[in-house]
Design goal:
Elements (H helix, E strand, L loop, with lengths): L5 H12 L4 H8 L3 H11 L7 H37 L3 E7 L4 E7 L4 H42 L5
Antiparallel strand pairs: 1-2
Helix pairs in contact: 1-3, 4-5
Length: about 160
């Protein structure tokens, strides 16, 4: 590989400082990507994504998402409890019918079977949602320790 010119070093340094990646620097300058990488390495510049700010932003986003999932899980469980209480509570059954389209209603000790089946289906869907959220968060908690360890092991100090 031919020696680097001062102009190449200037271009890479300037565009890197502006936050451009290797591919973008290569496109803007016409310097081959491998050469851009070699110049950056010589200058002690890194194209490693992330750094402390990105890591902090990612962690904040993960925490916000976990909070939202917890709210959804709690809402699903509360709705499940409400539906289950309706399964065996008095229920008003009504219909419109007849030649005059009359309104009729009756109160029963419990909802009709078809309504109970609909309630059970809804309860099942809500519980599956709550369980999937809980499983996701348990798996996420289990892997976060491994991720931190891997990041520590691969950290080469060029943030």
């Amino acid at each position: 590989m031919a020696p680097f010119t001062d102009r190449e070093r200037e271009q890479v340094t300037e565009l890197h400082a502006q936050g451009h990646g290797r591919n973008e620097i290569s496109r803007r300058t016409g310097i081959h990507q491998k050469r851009v990488s070699a110049i950056a390495a010589e200058l002690g510049l890194s194209f490693r994504r992330g750094g402390a700010r990105t890591a902090a932003a990612t962690e904040a986003r993960k925490a916000d998402a976990a909070t939202r999932r917890a709210r959804i899980e709690e809402t699903a469980l509360a709705a499940t409890e409400k539906l289950l209480s309706q399964m065996f509570a008095p229920a008003k059954v009504f219909n419109f019918g007849g030649k005059e389209n009359d309104y009729n209603e009756q109160t029963h000790d419990e909802p009709p079977f078809a309504d109970k089946r609909a309630i059970a289906t809804s309860v099942q869907a809500l519980m599956q949602t709550a369980l999937k959220i809980a499983e996701h968060d348990r798996a996420d908690a289990a892997t976060s320790g491994v991720d931190a360890w891997l990041e520590h092991m691969t950290d080469d100090g060029d943030d």
